[in-house]
Amino acid sequence: MHTAVEPVIDLAQERDEILKRYRRLLRSAKPYLKENDAKLIKKAFNTSAEAHKEMRRRSGEPYIYHPLAVAQIAVEEIGLGTTSIVAALLHDVVEDTDTTIADIERGFGKKVAQIIDGLTKISGIFEYGTSQQAENFRKMLLTLSDDVRVILIKLADRLHNMRTLDSMPRDKQLKIASETIYIYAPLAHRLGLNAVKTELEDLYLKYVEPEAYKDVARKLRESKTSRDRFINTFIKPIEDDLIASGYPYVIKGRPKSIYSIWNKLSKSKKPFEEIYDLFAVRVILKVPIEQEKAACWRAYSIVTDHYKPNPDRLKDWISTPRANGYESLHTTVMSRSGQWVEVQIRTDRMNEIAEKGYAAHWKYKGNDTRTGAGIDSWIGQVREMLEMAEQGDKTAAVEFLDDFRSNLYSEEVFVFTPKGELKVLQRGATALDFAFDIHTQIGAKCMAAKVNNVLVPLSHVLHNGDQVEVITSNKQKPNEDWLRFVVTSKAKTKIKDLIKEDNKRYITDGKELVTKRLKILRMDMTNELVNQLRAYFGSKTTSDFYYRVGKAHIDVKELNKFKAEKEAKENRALKLNTDTLQDAKAVGKELKKMHGERTDADMLLIGEDMDKIDYTLARCCNPIAGDDVFGFVTVMEGIKIHRVSCPNAVELMSNHGNRIIKAKWTSQKELAFLAGLRITGTDRIGLINDVTRVISNELHINMRSVTIDSTDGVFEGMIKLYVNNTSHLDTLMRKLESVDGVFDVVRFD
Ligand code: MN
To answer: Which of 38, 133, 319, 342 could form a disulfide with 280 if both were Cys (CB 3.0 to 4.6 A apart)?
Structure first.
């Protein structure tokens, strides 16, 4: 930011300029200063000027211009007071010079030191789109709970850096501008700093899409004359009546921001000439606070006396202010030349809040009880969310950032509790979001809801004015499915946490059951053994294995079978080492003698006598219980079981007929077999989700691998999964076929 520059500058003139800027700051702050404030500001200015005296900005200007400008923005554009001015003047001192936080505290007190500490902490490396950025952002918001002024000064800092972006190299410009549109503009919006937000957005466009910016700006300029003519004709009859009403007022047409017009152009794909809402007409009334509402509606009545309103476009943010504190009455009316015009009606108090946000809101709060809830409850929500994400790992931080950003931009829906208490939720919020908003436990146990006395499911989307009653049950438990339809970050985070907790409990339960069972079986619970168990039951991880036991998807009694088979295998390995395989029948008898009676779980009967003999399943065709199969006696690997439809079957049967033995399945116990399914269909959002849900909802089915291919809207999935038998597989295939968009499900080998 600061590089040494050859001293070709007139230093005396520069000193004058610095003083000039400092006096301007004092003048702007003057109306709000209490005794001693000016002294403190002067001290901060001197400290900052001294600390930065050797430094210059990249533009070559003295560095002190920057803190002075940030302080100026804080006073003039955000409406902050002495503490913030002092902090703004000193904001880069700790980071860029030898001054410490302790020095600041000694000189300016604890409050200023805390704010500067917050500012220094959040200024760390801000890599766009990384988890580091997400984590820093989270830290930055955490400081909200200490003092929201940290964020406000940070915004002033960012605004000045954006205004002076010209002297930065191109890559820095892009990085800083991207960060700005990604985080700072939404943040300004959420804090109700409309003017700051709009300027940040316009500056973003100016640097990232310079051609588009220039183009829109030029067209706005060129069309100004005709637009002004239109606006004057439009407001004339309204003005006449406003004068008659006796309310002091200001009425004007305000062009929308370049960024928002550019957004409209790119979204609608229409040329500039066809975009009509390039401006809004704003009526600002100067009335005492107790007359505000009546005056605004009176003005509304005047406007609609002359122009027909669009009934769908009436927005009353006076009776119910938006969550960022915004109050105004909006209507869209039809002009005489046939185009819709948005009219915003508000008082000068409301206008100041709309432009300056939080601080202005604060200023008025003392004498107005109606405007309380918005910002306070928002900061409360942010704090709550931050505390929930407190332990968060890196991915959690990114996830949090995404959730948070979607919350910043979304609009609200206003609903009521049965007792008539107003709740402001994000647009698209469901009954379940509402339940979680009331209390985590209410959300966790939510079964259904009554909306305006009609029973609705949890996923029901709420509308403005709905009265919502939550129905709970102690049997209810959060599940993954819920995440598909909740929209608020609060509900999302809570559900994820609850599911995690729940899973952990199943894992602990499962581990306990396994430990006990192994003790009964007198087996040592070594890592190796646990790993064998995991593989035996086809689980991907040990936790997954424990989880399935805990959830009773695996009966612990099946461990007995595992032990038996393990011992059989070990015995066989011994035996095969000493003997050579002569004849399947002999081996079979041998094996049967050895442990035939104990291996009652055997499922395949082999040979003329239909004995229970050990076997392995051929890998070429992956037979599963219920398939038509035959046994093939191999030289080295004992009996292999193939499907009759195996591609190798013909060759085996015709050339080695003497080594073929009969085989057939008996009872079908809960052993898993690997089978492959090929699913084809038309691709749509959520298809994979639906397919995997069908599969995992089928008890005892575990997927081993999934490959999905999608080209030009056609979807092909190859899924390998473990099933118990053919009828099990058939049921699954039928269910998969009935999934919307799937047209074929076939088995492959
Ligand atoms: Mn700075």
So the answer is: 342
Element (H, E) at 667: none
Catalytic residue among 14, 17, 76, 96: 96
User: Would you say 412 and 426 are in contact if contact means Cβ atoms under 8 Å apart?
Assistant: yes
Closest CA to 190 of 325, 40, 387, 332: 325
Residue written as token pair 């001197």: 46
Q: How far is the CA of 62 from the centre of ligand 1 (A)?
A: 13
How many Å lie between the centroid of ligand 1 and the Cα of residue 250?
37
CB 741 within 8 A of CB 642: no
Q: Which domains does the chain have, with CATH numbers?
A: 11-211 (1.10.3210.10), 216-373 (3.30.460.10), 388-497 (3.10.20.30), 498-570 (no CATH), 584-665 (no CATH), 673-748 (3.30.70.260)
How many angstroms is it from 61 CA to the middle of ligand 1? 14
* Catalytic-role residue among 95, 228, 555, 570: 95
The DSSP bridge pattern shows strands 468-472 and 446-451 to be: antiparallel
**pLDDT tens column, 528-560:** 888 888 888 887 778 889 988 988 888 888 888
73 C-alpha to ligand 1 centroid (Å): 12
**How many other β-carbons are positioned within 10 Å of the β-carbon of residue 725?**
21
DSSP state string for 29-86: HGGG--TTHHHHHHHHHHHHHHHTTT-B-TTSSBTTHHHHHHHHHHHHTT---HHHHH
CB of 118 closer than 8 Å to CB of 40: no
37 catalytic per annotation? no
Place of tokens 């402001």: 424
Q: 394-423, pLDDT tens digit by residue? A: 455 555 556 565 555 556 777 888 887 777
Which residue's entry shows tokens 């080492």? 577
Gap from CA of 160 to ligand 1 centroid (Å): 8
